[in-house]
Every structure is written in C-alpha cells, then in structure tokens.
Specification:
The chain is an alpha/beta fold. It contains 19 helices and eleven strands. The strands form two sheets. Strands 7-6-5-4-3-2-1-8-9 form a nine-stranded mixed beta sheet. Strands 10-11 form a two-stranded antiparallel ribbon.
Length: 473
C-alpha cells in the first residue's frame, strides 16, 4: 500500500499532527510524504496544483527544490518548523482558504491571500527612487487600529501579512504586533541598517516572521541607491539573521543601472552564501511624484531578468519572485484585492504598493468594505489587463487602463505628485508600454502560446508562499 492510500481516511486534525511529526525528522522520503498530507487539507484546485508542482520537483533528480526544502527544515529550530507550518501553511493556505470560500459565498467576491501593511513612513534612510518619497511623514498607524485590522484579516481568512514602511524596525510596536498575533505569518521588509544580534534572536524566538533585506547589488550599486556605508550594514544584518537561524531573503529594486548585477549568477551565489532562502525582484517605476523614467529597465533588460530567473529556478536552491515577469504564473495583475492590496501609513487602502490612489481610509471603514470599493471592483473587473501576462501592470504595461479606472471611479491620490503618472508623464508611460509590448508580444507568442519547456519552479509553483509580494524599504 502506498503512502497516499495509507492516509486516505485520516481526518484533518490527524493529518496536521502527522505533518508536525514528520517535520521533526527530515528526509527526502518525508518531504514527498508531506506533500500528500498537504493535499488532504484542501480542496482548492490552485493549492492542489501548487502542491503537486512541488512534489514533481522533489521527485525530479537533481532539482534544487529538494536541497532547498531540506536546508530550510534543518536550519530552522524544531519549534519554529511547527510555527511556520501552523501560520504560513495551515492558517494562511488551508484553514484560511476555507474562510475565504465562505466569505466569497456571502459577499460575492474572494478576499486576497496577502495584505501589505505599512505601519509607519519613518525611515533612517532616503533611498533614491523609493516609492514612498512623495508621502508626508506622518506618525503612522496607531497600534489599536492595527490590532483591529489584523483581527478583521483573520476573520476573512487572511493570515499572511507583508510589513513595509518606511523602515518597519522604526515602528515602536513591531515586535508587539508579531507577538500578539501568533496565528499570522509576517514578512518584514527592511533596509537592514537597524538589525542587531538581539533583534534577530527575538525574531527567532517569536517564530512567526521572516525578514527580507533590501539590497541593490554590491557596495557600489547599493550605496549609490541607499547611501554610503549601507551595504556593509546589510551584510552584517544578514550575518545576524543567519546566526540566529531566522528565515530571511533579499529584495532588489531593479533599474537599468543595476539589472545586470542583481540578475547575475555571481550575485545570486553570493546571496546564497550569506544564507538567504529567497530573492525578490521589483522593477523601479516612477510613482513617487519625483519619478525618473530613465531609471526604468529597457525591454531587453526586463526580458534578460526573466530568462535569468527561469535559469535560477532550475539550478539554485532558493525561492524567487520576479514581480512583473511572474505575471504568467498568476494570470496577470494581482492588485485591487484579487491577491493582495496595501494599507499605507496614513490608513489609505491602496490597490497596490505602486498605485497611489484610494477611495477609503481604513480608519473609517471595515476591511471588507474597503475591499469592495468601486475602485477595487473596477480593477478586478478588468483583470487581466492584457491577454499577454508578461504585460500585467496597469501602470507601466497598460497605462490606459489605469487612466480609465481613475476616470470611472474618481479616487483620491494619496500624496502630492502621485497623479503625474497619468498627467505629466502620460506620454512617456504610453511610449514605454508600447516599446515593451513589441518585445513582450513576440516572446509571449513564441514561448508561452505553444508547448513550452519553461518549467515551473520553487517560486512559481508555490507563488502564494514564495515571498508573497512587494518591495519595501
């Protein structure tokens, strides 16, 4: 009798207990058994597809996913393995999915998997091109309000929170927020400069958070973007996190000036040696009211990044998120509450970290009401914005869609200058989109509309888990 037959009559509670037991004894066989057990906890076809994709990779000789999952489990303290399973997998994927099913039946739309929360705009750096430069530096969100937001998240089945800023480690209630909500998995983006050994150990002791450190390449690229001396502090932060056995990754804002570096095998190998389990790529886009379209990657550079990510997913033991080029894996744009949304440090409920418009402030409405705003409905109704999912974005790939949505719903811009992408930069955004369309449509026809050899990956097969979205600090 094979393993799937042995477990076919187990209850969900029995399956969860068996998973926790298997997590304490790592082996190749048990990794595959975990995937069969995971299938017992859900009926959602997307989650089942992701689990099957992971199992296929684990069963493929030489695939890096086997090394990745073994290394993660061996790296984590035993207690933290259980915490990560309970928060990230059981709560966010399995139990949360059932709550989202119920919410959809009652309200007519499905809650997202991820919320991006910026509790503060305060930051000790002022990085070139940061998407937050246009916002006023208000004190941030009161902790009582954040508790209310997180309670409402859990009520609708949302248990994955990405924390941005500003600099999250300047928010005075960050650790309290993580500690007070052990049912939630937090992903905290940071510039790394405030990380200490003590903070890393506290994150480890809590167990329900991972850290993503922003870095634009080696010292030359990073310090040019973030300021003198920052690169060395980032490397020290990674050392603290690795020595404390905290799950952590890296994130790069990709421009035409650093794309070759951050997409190079040499750079990725350097990060793996530092101990990351994930690398995230986010294209620079000019949305902060002080935008410079000349910093954006060219069509050729954007496609180079796509090809490198495909190669790394086949060869490197790491999760990878390429936010724009991963459009084919998530069927285009995920904003407007389809898969995620953003609450900024003023309380404005934005469709996306980069889409600086809103119709509601969370101080005045419930989370469910904000997700059902005319703005969010208009975005979801139009998704995908393009049949070519390599062109998913309504800002840089389909800018006419963003203008159409704004004209229809009349939202407010969430900071001075946010309107420039649809006003003074309109022609430039249209021209950029047209240039990329010529390039991307050819790739789409040749590589995605015919039987493809492009495999899914550690990241794309489990895209909901793989770093779940957005660049921050």
């Amino acid at each position: 009798m094979n393993f799937s037959e042995q477990i076919k009559d187990l209850t969900g509670q029995q399956v969860s207990r068996m998973i926790v037991e298997l997590l304490s004894r790592v082996s190749d066989e048990r990794l595959i058994q975990l995937t069969y057990l995971g299938e017992k906890l859900t009926s959602d076809y997307e989650i089942l597809g992701a689990i099957k994709g992971v199992r296929n990779m684990l069963e493929t000789p030489g695939h890096p996913s086997k090394k990745l999952f073994r290394e993660v489990l061996e790296y984590l303290p035993p207690k933290n393995r259980t915490i990560v399973f309970n928060t990230l997998f059981h709560n966010a994927w399995f139990m949360g999915n059932r709550k989202r099913d119920q919410f959809e039946k009652e309200h007519g739309f499905r809650p997202p998997f991820v919320m991006i929360l910026s509790p503060t705009w305060q930051c000790n750096l002022r990085c070139a091109g940061c998407y937050t430069l246009g916002y006023q530096r208000y004190p941030g969100l009161p902790y009582d309000l954040i508790k209310r937001i997180l309670r409402e998240c859990m009520d609708i089945g949302l248990h994955f929170i990405t924390v941005l800023g500003g600099e999250p480690f300047m928010y005075p209630h960050l650790f309290q927020m993580i500690e007070d909500h052990p049912q939630i998995f937090f992903q905290v983006y940071t510039n790394g400069t405030l990380m200490t050994r003590e903070k890393a150990e506290r994150i480890r002791d809590l167990g329900n958070a991972m850290v993503v450190v922003s870095c634009e390449g080696y010292e030359e690229e990073t310090d040019k973007w973030r300021g003198p001396g920052v690169y060395k502090k980032i490397m020290e932060a990674m050392d603290h996190l690795r020595e404390a056995h905290v799950l952590f990754g890296s994130s790069a804002t990709v421009t035409k000036d650093n794309v070759q570096v951050v997409s190079s095998e040499k750079w990725v190998d350097h990060l793996l040696k530092k101990g990351i389990i994930a690398q995230n790529y986010f294209l620079y886009i000019p949305v902060n009211g002080q935008g410079d379209i000349n910093l954006m990657v060219t069509p050729e550079q954007r496609d180079h990044l796509r090809k490198q990510v495909i190669k790394f997913r086949r060869t490197k033991p790491m999760f990878i998120l390429d936010f724009w080029n991963d459009g084919p894996h998530v069927r285009g744009c995920i904003a407007g509450g389809r898969r995620y949304f953003h609450i900024n440090a003023n309380g404005d409920v934005e469709p996306c970290v980069y889409t600086h418009v809103a119709m509601d402030n969370i101080k005045n409405v419930s989370l469910a009401e904000a997700l059902d705003s005319p703005l969010f409905r208009a975005i979801r109704r139009r998704q995908p914005h393009n049949e070519n999912h390599l062109r998913p974005c309504m800002i840089i790939d389909n800018p006419e869609r963003l203008r159409e949505i704004i004209e229809e719903t009349h939202p407010y811009f969430t900071h001075p200058g946010a309107e420039e992408v649809v006003t003074t930069m309109k022609e430039e955004m249209d021209a950029y989109a047209a240039r990329f369309a010529v390039y991307a449509d050819k790739v789409w026809r040749e590589e995605y509309l015919k039987p493809s050899t492009i495999s899914t990956s550690c990241a794309s097969s489990s895209i909901g888990v793989s770093m779940a979205m957005k660049s921050g600090s």
